[in-house]
Design goal:
globular, four-stranded antiparallel β-sheet, eight-stranded mixed β-sheet, Ribosomal Protein S5, domain 2, binds alpha-D-galactopyranose, single chain, alpha+beta
Length: about 375
């Protein structure tokens, strides 16, 4: 469906059929909030919404990006290297950054390409549209130039681009889930060893997403601030030796070093360390089919994000509280970076549209705006093909 749409868009924009298509899903962060860039554990779900990219080689060294919102085309000449584009055209930096690090990994681009994309992912909902455009570009480019890229390699390219090209100090959760996603499964990532595995979702579990549509104006700065507080704590815990990520430390080590870091760094580390333990426990419980118990960990995760990591907000807390009152909800928590965005709920088959609407109505009574409800299924990860 998405593939047909992107081909149609490409033909409208360029008057010719594309030669390669790549697709990548968005993701839900199931549990493991801000653990990834701390070398921690995290679980996520690739969803049945995402982004597709269509490409065709050109005869020159240029890239041409079609903007479906304005109908305009943006041209970048890459004969003298690939550099970030200025504000106003920064959406092209997502595909561009990926291309730069694919070239660094050995891709030989003889000619540029024409580019069009199509998305059925709501933006600003914390579903990682950025990873979806990065990984769909990566798969499409790999197909177009016949360049072999392993799944874990694609994830690394995406992270490098985020960290160095886009200045976003994130970890590998978003790209990892977008690439390693599997139908009816959850992706488990050990971000220290960069190992990816999947486990089947227990039968009957579904996901409901409630997008608050609220977004903190300073969200990127706040993410970077949390990142540096975690690094401060890791440095203090490493006691002047080789700096090791928070994954290496337990709560008792943290208590011992409490006086060597700022109170905020201590709180962030306390969240990350306890969250790693919750992820490991949740994985075990899901394998044993103990869904209700795993659900409780989702609520505990949210509570820790709210009180220790301080990346929740009143809107998200209200959604979690309303969901908690529903017997058909196993658990709910903020999903993704935080400071606005969406709450995800793990629900039983009995959770109906009417239940979801009741939550939305109560939320609207308090905040005057209705959250957007999105039901989604766990789906396969990114792929690419030559047409
Ligand atoms: C964003 C980042 C991820 C991860 C989450 C929080 O989605 O892109 O790398 O840090 O926030 O867990």
């Amino acid at each position: 469906m998405r593939k047909e749409k992107v081909v149609e868009r490409f033909v409208k924009a360029y008057g010719a059929l594309p030669e390669a298509v790549g697709s990548a899903p968005g993701r839900i962060e199931f549990i493991g909030n801000h653990t990834d860039y701390n070398g921690g554990l995290v679980m996520g779900v690739a969803i049945d919404r995402g982004i597709s990219v269509a490409l065709k080689k050109r005869d020159d060294s240029r890239l041409c990006f079609f903007n479906p919102k304005t109908g305009e085309k943006y041209i970048v000449d890459i004969s003298r290297g690939i550099e970030p584009q200025p504000t106003g055209a920064n959406w092209v930096n997502y595909p561009l950054g990926v291309l730069k690090y694919m070239v660094e990994a050995g891709l030989d681009i003889d000619r540029g390409f024409n580019f069009a994309d199509f998305s059925d992912l709501p933006t600003g909902a914390g579903l990682s549209s950025s990873a979806a455009i990065e990984m769909s570009t990566c798969m499409a480019v790999a197909s177009l130039y016949n360049f072999g890229v392993e799944k874990a390699g694609a994830v690394r390219i995406g992270r490098k681009s985020e960290n160095n090209f886009l200045n976003m100090p994130c970890g590998i959760l978003d790209q990892g889930v977008s690439v390693f996603g599997k139908k009816d499964s959850i992706v488990f990532i050990d971000c220290l060893s960069e190992e990816f595995s999947t486990c089947p979702l227990p039968k009957g579990c579904r996901f409901a997403l409630f997008n608050s549509t609220k977004k903190h104006a300073l969200v990127e700065g706040l993410y970077a601030e949390r990142h540096s507080e975690c690094m401060e704590a890791a440095k203090a815990l490493s006691r002047g030796g080789e700096e090791r990520p928070l994954r290496f430390f337990g709560l008792s080590a943290l208590e011992e070093s409490k006086g060597k870091m700022s109170p905020k760094a201590y709180m962030r580390a306390r969240h990350v360390i306890s969250e790693n333990a919750r992820v490991a426990e949740a994985a075990k419980l899901l394998k044993e089919n103990k869904i209700a118990e795993a659900g409780k960990l989702l609520y505990a995760s949210h509570e820790s994000s709210r009180t220790l990591f301080e990346n929740s907000c009143e809107e998200l807390d209200t959604l979690v509280d309303l969901l908690k009152a529903d017997k058909n909800v196993y658990g709910a928590r903020l999903s993704g970076g935080g400071f606005g965005g969406a709450v995800m709920a793990l629900v039983s088959p009995e959770f109906s549209q009417a239940d979801a609407e009741r939550v939305a109505k109560k939320y609207a009574e308090k905040f005057g705006a209705t959250p957007k409800i999105l039901e989604c299924r766990a789906d396969d990860g990114a792929c690419g093909e030559l047409l």
